Amino acid sequence: MGDNVLNEDFLIEMLESLILSEFKEKDYTIFDQQILGVELTETEFEETVARILKSKSQSFGKKIRRIVQDKRRDLLELAFKRAQKRYKSQKTLRFLMFEQNEVGE
Model-level pTM greater than 0.85? Predict the structure, then answer.
């Protein structure tokens, strides 16, 4: 059981990093509004994820499709939430740095 938890943690961290590197603002919005907390059937979930993946790299798409095929929606959603939180933190830090530079001049 311990190995399984380690594998899941590693997978979540990998997915989180991939999401951060591939997603743009609109992707976070789509995922947040159309996937998270929405009661979707597996088919609806797969179609929505496929729509997001159209503009992403092939490598990213393959990894996400594999997670979806393995019925590990929970891992994908957790990784997304973590990536979204980091994305918002980075965005806030950039804004604060910009504000600090503007005030400092």
Answer: no
Task: For residue range 28-81, list pLDDT tens digits in order.
Answer: 998 888 888 888 888 898 888 888 898 899 999 999 999 988 888 899 999 999
Domain that holds residue 56: 2-104
How many domains does the chain fold into?
1
**Please, are residues 67 and 15 in contact by the beta-carbon 8 Å criterion?**
yes
Contacting residues for 79 by C-beta, under 8 A, at least 6 apart: 11, 12, 13, 15, 16, 19
DSSP secondary structure of 31-66: HHHHTTT----HHHHHHHHHHHHTTS-HHHHHHHHH
Cα distance from N-terminal residue to C-terminal residue, the chain: 56
